[in-house]
Design a protein that fits this description.
By secondary structure, the chain is of the alpha+beta class. The chain contains five helices and five strands; from the N terminus they run αβαββααββα.
Length: 142
């Protein structure tokens, strides 16, 4: 099972925003789209960072409510780990666990092609395990 499998099912839409977007506006995007992270992109579409719910909470904890009026670039995570459509689910689970992150933008030749969350990975893994169990039952019973 690969990242491409997940993207085929969930789609390739990624919510992005420029670094100048306020933290409150990013929080609004998270709420509106029911997602956990927004990719921060430059004018050329390159990834500059990512803002997750955790980044917003950390910004407010450090600076108080005024953090919400500041640019997202001030709270974003600048080191963005990415993955490739050919990466296995197991490989990205390792990256997410090792770096304690829940979202991996999918990049091909420097271009953002989608995003995968830990929820997407868990959903796909559960489906895989259920299929394996069903096949095992069929094999034993048949």
């Amino acid at each position: 099972m690969t990242v491409a499998t997940i993207l085929k099912e969930k789609g390739t839409e990624v919510v992005t925003a420029p670094a100048g977007t306020t933290v409150a506006e990013v929080a609004g995007l998270l709420n509106e789209h029911r997602i956990g992270a927004v990719v921060i992109t430059g004018p050329d579409g390159s990834i500059e960072g990512i803002v997750s719910e955790r980044d917003i909470v950390s910004g407010v904890a450090r600076s108080g409510p005024q953090a919400l009026g500041r640019p997202a670039g001030e709270v974003m995570t600048r080191t963005v780990h990415t993955c490739d459509p050919a990466d296995s689910i197991y490989a990205i689970m390792n990256v997410m666990t090792e770096h304690r992150i829940r979202h991996l933008p999918v990049v091909v030749d420097g271009t953002l092609q989608g995003i995968v969350s830990i929820g997407d990975v868990v959903k796909q893994r559960i489906a895989e395990v259920e299929f394996e169990a069903s096949e095992m039952k069929r094999y034993i019973g048949g």
